[in-house]
Task: structure prediction
Amino acid sequence: MRFDLADLRLFLAVVEAGSITHGASAANLSLAAASERLRQMEASGGVSLLDRGRRGVSATRAGEALAHHARLVLHQVAAMQAELSEHARGVRATIRLFANTAAMAEFLPGRLGPWLAAHPRIDVNLSERPSSEIVKAIAGGLAEIGIVSDAIETSPLTTSPFAVDRLVAVMSSTHPMARERRIAFSQLLGEDQIGFAGALQQHVDDHAARAGHRLQPRVHLRTFEGICRMAADGVGFGIVPEIAARRCRRTMPIAFVRLTDAWATRRLLLCSQAVQELQPITRQLFEHLARGQHAPILRPDTDP
Result:
């Protein structure tokens, strides 16, 4: 029975995602390549590792045992690489950091940049994921540090406050709702929407679905600035972090309106497995992000 590190990473990704398709994507493999690797792993071990069903896959008892040992092996490999990087001149270490959309686009760059500049031999493998997936990835050892919304259950992970993220509706300054101070998200469900091509859109779509509505954005864009620009042109409304809307309002004819819905105000949390068990350089980054104050935090009782 011979499994390499790529096999172990793929298997963990599939188990955490509950899907071969999503696991393959997380491991940067095609579905065909991932399926063949998994088949070879089962053939090599002589045992079924996954129960395959219509709604996805789950680990068998043998698969759960493999996942447990895979996490230990990958943790030890990461520890070895980190320790060697402290002694090997010119060798670069990499920290895996998963963040939700708001943290990735608005809050993280200002805090992460100074730290990376001060640590030229350390790289950060940064990925945008929905908060729910980030928690699973941290628990499964697929990343060392995550930034998630506090609406997600994070136990038994270690958490620390990171920022406050308020979502607002951005629209043309001539839009009929532009003069409102606050509106409910339900008031926007009949309006044309500009979507975001990222994890934030899933968050918005989920709350629309709970209200019995399916959003069908006219277009999906990859930047908040792009959404604000199209909103200024009257294409529709967009949902963006207030910090982004404030910045864009300086140069674009837009208005933004706060949402009265509780889910629109999110506290962002840093999360990891036990901080004391992190490698020293990873712990340094976690502590730096936890105490950093480079990104503005908007008070909930401040009017636009």
About this structure: Residues 293-304 have pLDDT under 50 and may be disordered. The domain at 87-163+268-291 is CATH 3.40.190.10 (D-Maltodextrin-Binding Protein; domain 2). The chain is about 45% helix and 20% strand.
